[in-house]
Amino acid sequence: xxxxxxRIPRSRRIHKTVAIAVAxxxxxxxxxxxxxxxxxxxxxxTGFISLVGGQVLDGNLNADYAGFDPINGVxxxxxxxxxxxxxxxxxxxxxxxxxxxxxxxxxxxxxxAKVVGQVVVRGTxxxxxxxxxxxxxxxxxxxxxxxxxxxxxxxxxxxxxxxGVAYPWVATPPELYGWDATNYNGVSVRYGGxxxxxxxxxxxxxxxxxxxxxxxxxxxxxxxxxxxxKNILGAxxxxxxxxxxxxxxxxxxxxxxxxxxxxxxxYGLAANLDMxxxxxxxxxxxxxxxxxxxxxxxxxxxxxxxxxLRLGKWxxxxxxxxxxxxxxxxxxxxxxxxxxxATLRYDLNSSSALKVQVDRHKDATQNLGGDVTVLRLSYDRxx
Amino acid sequence: MTxxxxxxxxLLGLFALASQVVQAQVAIIVGPQSTAxxxxxxxxxxxxxxxxxxxxxxxxxxxxxxxESSAVREAFYTKATGKSAAQVKAxxxxxxxxxxxxxxxxxxxxxxIKKAVASSANAVGYVEKSxxxxxxxxxxxxx
Lengths: 383, 143
Hints:
The complex is a heterodimer.
Chain A: H1 10-32, H2 35-40, E1 43-60, E2 79-82, E3 87-89, E4 100-108, E5 113-122, E6 125-138, E7 143-151, E8 183-195, E9 198-211, E10 227-241, E11 244-257, E12 260-274, E13 278-291, E14 296-299, E15 302-309, E16 314-324, E17 326-327, E18 336-349, E19 352-363, E20 371-382
Chain B: H1 2-24, E1 26-30, H2 41-48, E2 54-55, E3 59-60, E4 62-65, H3 71-81, H4 85-97, E5 105-106, H5 110-118, E6 123-128, E7 137-142
Parallel strand pairs in B: 4-5, 4-6
Antiparallel strand pairs in B: 1-6, 1-7, 2-3
């Protein structure tokens, strides 16, 4: 297990190959059928692919480094790019930590009711992952009820975190986007309305998520950790007016990790300004986990701020992000890291883009991979 | 000689500019029986970027798009939303992959769009201003 290349067993790799072949076939089918046929039918097939390759250019583990090495089988200094799926880069160029492909089907049963399913395969996980599977019903002009499996909408980009063409970075900032659970099974009610030029969407959501082999906990050296997020209950509100979009979210859940209970509480605020030729993306979250059993009590505020320019097909973007843990106990060694990044995106056409990104990551507490400079390239496409 | 060449070039340039301006006028249209009320540019932008699905006075909007490569589509999105084709696609991708919106249906040409909006009370589309005729009602003209 010390080498990253042997992480995915052969049988899983075959599964992955099959799944990617199915995805490729679907691209062919959807491209072959004319746009008109597709738009007139109640059945819609869409998909996305993101090929991301990267490596640590330069890294350093201080003499007082107190973290794991390797992390999830990857020798450090290393960079944890995707916490939820345990995607880690080091000095060897790799496509596995963040590459992914997905297919979504939606079928309109009536003008009010539809069913939606989405399956994603990842370099880090050969087993196709069902990220969405829900039925929705439009109650009236403003309200919609959704039942089934969805993304936990903890952050502004959570719902479309896998869709690379939808954002200027190579990946959403891992300082925020990256917990053990990303999806849940449950119910949500969504509101969408307009007041003059102001658009408002809001939702109320609740449910739970269970999985036996958490990828997230592999980053902490635990192979088969069983995680349950119970009693997920949350609400979000997004307001858009002209160039401004502001979103607030609250969520609570009872998180059970290998039988140990903790109460999770999170608040988030995102503010985006889009002036067409330039734009600002910002998001802050405050997240707490408290466990009476362990005497564990830590809070993890995180923030990201980025500014980009739109120069025709080119979008240069700079970003700063940080994650600061503090623990009110001796059980847990808190982690703090900061990162600055520069990304250049080039739109190949309306549905695909190339990006190159350099990250300078500072592991301030020297316990999660060390200080690293990372180079990543990506090709993102939707179809 | 050089002066007249310059003049010709200038004239051609002006002509090209004038014809571009004429071409760039885009009319936002609904059917003659539609109860939709006048739209602001901001509301048109919200509808075609999926920020709102409410067509004021007519309920949930049914949107129609021109073909992806057409000049009128580019002119419409540039002027009404300030976004490039790639940005528009990126915006809709967010909504499509999170099940939050139905993107505009793409039709073959202005004649097809006029026919489609004329046959549905909550439909809205856009055509070159020169393509407007009695079969449709104009809610907004974007210069």
